[in-house]
Protein: Ferredoxin reductase
Amino acid sequence: MAGHWRPATLLDHRREAATARTLVLHVAGWPGHQPGQHVDLRLTAEDGYTAQRSYSLAAPTSGDTIELTVQRVPDGEVSPYLVDVADIGDRSEVRGPLGGWFIWNTDQTTPVMLLAGGAGIVPLMAMVRARRDQHSTTLFRVLYSLRCPQERYYTDELGHHPHDDGLEVFFAYTRHAPPSQPRPPGRLTPAEIATHGLPPDLAPTCFVCGPTGFVESTADALLALGHHPRAVKTERFGPSKGSP
Structure:
């Protein structure tokens, strides 16, 4: 059941950025999950003190293995340990999968638009990976807004290629752009969403994830462009301290 805690063991980890890494966890009896869902993770100290946080699942179901990409939060209680200290063999607990609204069904063939602000790319990457694993040709557009190249996740998988069998990725750097990027730094604009995204007449499902400011402005832009409100699904995290 999704509501009870399951023991989890860290099998592997890999650095995604200076402030983030992906944790690969073995969870015996994991029931499986949908791309876009999340889990609660709980740590217990030797003195019995516990702390828990919610993290998006970064990859589709793969047996008893799950992946979480965690961003270090300044002055955080849990994320600094997970990003910089936790090592193979360390134990924790997870509860889930959680969430039933912000998910992509792999049987879906209607077009999909994914709009990420910073670490909001994590649950959307699970959808991209699920599409790949299913050899799906569903039309996907990914618009990824982030401050600078050093904060970019999944560089090899999202790659430097603009498209692959119906998948196209657009990067909007807001503070510092790489030399190869002709677009000057700046926030993702409604015009760019219209140009690099999908038009409303294709009736795409739009998934928007990131800090509150990014999610609100992006959702407003999608509605203004003519996308149906029921087709715009949003998920936000943390206090907004400036949009990516």
